[in-house]
């Protein structure tokens, strides 16, 4: 139950900030995400009868709530041309991990995904109950 509450809180924070954009970022092109090839797909888990997860694209990351994708790139693009301080930081891009964060003003959201198998990944979270496992669709 704690995992469900944590995950829903995380998704609500992402959606509530979904009026954001990236002009300044700390990744290679200062504007986009670069998920590794192995993670580029839709990954979901069932929580409380609903599907939640992530859709990793070649230049974007989207959260999935049931059948709706909310993409970070579109969220960050809303801030283009404003005075908002935006950054994207991809800390780890490897064959088994993808760790990144984005910052809008002083709010930073962190994500860390670890490959478990070719058909499953886990989101490493700071929750006493452990990690969330997602299955490739």
Features:
2 helices; signal; 9-stranded antiparallel β-sheet; 137 residues; 9 strands; globular; 15% helix; alpha+beta; 44% strand
Please provide a written account of the structure:
This protein is an alpha+beta fold and 137 residues long. The chain contains 2 helices and 9 strands. The chain has a 9-stranded antiparallel beta sheet with strand order 4-3-2-1-9-8-7-6-5. Strand 8 (120-123) and strand 9 form a beta hairpin. The longest helix is centred in the N-terminal third of the chain and has 15 residues, at 2-16. The model is unreliable at 1-29 (pLDDT under 50).
Side by side, the strands of the main sheet go 4-3-2-1-9-8-7-6-5
Compressed to H and E, one letter per element, the order equals HEEEEHEEEEE
Question: Structural class of the helix and strand makeup?
Answer: alpha+beta
Count of DSSP helices?
2
Taken as a percent bin, the fraction of beta residues is: 35-45%
Which stretches are poorly predicted, pLDDT < 50 over at least 5 residues?
1-29
Shape assignment: globular
Query: What is the total tally of β strands?
Result: 9
User: How much is the radius of gyration in Å?
Assistant: 14 Å
First-to-last CA distance: 24 Å
Helical proportion?
10-25%
Largest sheet: 9 strands, antiparallel
């Amino acid at each position: 139950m704690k995992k469900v509450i944590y995950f829903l809180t995380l998704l609500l924070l992402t959606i509530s900030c979904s009026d954001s954009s990236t002009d300044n970022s700390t990744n290679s092109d200062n504007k986009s995400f670069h998920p590794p090839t192995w993670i580029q797909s839709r990954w979901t888990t069932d929580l409380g009868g609903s599907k939640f997860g992530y859709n990793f694209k070649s230049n974007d990351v989207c959260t999935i709530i049931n059948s709706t994708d909310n993409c970070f790139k579109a969220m960050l693009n809303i801030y283009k041309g404003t005075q908002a301080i935006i950054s994207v930081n991809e800390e780890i891009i490897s064959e088994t991990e993808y760790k990144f964060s984005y910052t809008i003003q002083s709010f930073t959201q962190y994500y860390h995904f670890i490959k478990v198998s070719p058909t499953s990944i886990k989101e490493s979270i700071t929750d006493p109950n452990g990690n969330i496992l997602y299955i490739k669709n």
